Amino acid sequence: MSADGPPDRPGRTGLGALTPGEVPTRAALWQAIGGMRGLLESILPGLAFLVLYAVTKDTWLSVIPPVIIAAAFLLVRLVQRQSPLGALGGFLIVVVSAASALLTGNANDNFLPGLWVNGLFLVAMLVSLLVRWPFVGLVYGVLTGDPVGWRQAHRVRRAAIASTWLWAALFAARLIVELPLYFAEQTEALALAKLLMGIPLYAATLWLTWLLLRRQAAPAEEPREAN
Q1: Could you tell me if residue 225 is inside a domain?
Q2: Is the per-residue pLDDT at 202 higher than 60?
Q3: Nearest to 210, CA basis, from 121, 147, 143
C-alpha cells in the first residue's frame, strides 16, 4: 500500500495487516484494528454497558442492549457481504458475557469470560516462551508461510521472544487491574478499565510488535542457528 493512501489489503487485521519488511505506518495500524468500523465494534457494546449500568443498576437493561448492538454490526457486515469474522467474534464474546451475567443475576459477571480469556492468553504466551516456541513467532511463521524457518534466524527469533513478552505483559496488566475490581464488585470501574485497557493497549502493543518485526525477513548473510 502507499504511504499516504488507504490499505490495499482489505479485511486483514492484526499482524496480518503488515506486509513483511514494511515500515509500520498509522494507516497500517488503523487497518490492523479494523478502521472506524472495527473501533466502533470494539468500543460501543462496552460503552453501552457502562452507561446503562451507571444509570439503571439493572443487569438485564445493561447487558441486553450491547448484545443487540453487536448483532447489528454483524448483520450489517452480512448484508454488505463483507467478512463477518471480526464482528462474529465480538458478537460471541458479548453474548457469552451477557449470558454469564444473566445466569448469576450479577452484572459484575459480565466481565468474567473476558478475564478467563486474558488469563488463558497469558498462560499460552508464558508456556510458548517456556518451550522456546514464542507465540508471536508461531503467528509470524503462519503469516509468512514458513512455520519453522523463523527459528533459524537469530534476529527474528529474538524479536519473536521480545514481542511475546510484550503480549504477556498486556494480558498480565489487564488481569492485575481488572481482577481486584471484579472481586470488589466495582462494576462501573471495571467496565471503564476494560474500555481503557482494550483497544488502546492492544494498538500500542501491536505497534511495538511491528517495530520489533519490521526486519522480519532475515538477510541472506545472517548467521542461522540449528533448531
Answers
A1: no
A2: yes
A3: 143
CB under 8 Å to 212, separation ≥6 — which residues? Answer: 159, 162, 163, 166
The sign of the CA dihedral 172, 173, 176, 179 is negative
Cβ atoms of 45 and 197 closer than 8 Å: no
Which residue is associated with the grid cell 508471536?
A: 136
Would you say residue 9 lies in a domain? no
Helix (H, G, I), strand (E, B) or coil at 64: helix
Entry pTM: 0.81
| CA gap 16, 31 in Å, rounded | 10
Could you read off the pLDDT of 147-201 as tens digits, one per residue? Answer: 888 888 888 889 999 999 999 999 999 999 999 999 999 999 999 999 999 988 9
Range of the domain at 151: 18-213
Say whether pLDDT at 52 is over 90: yes
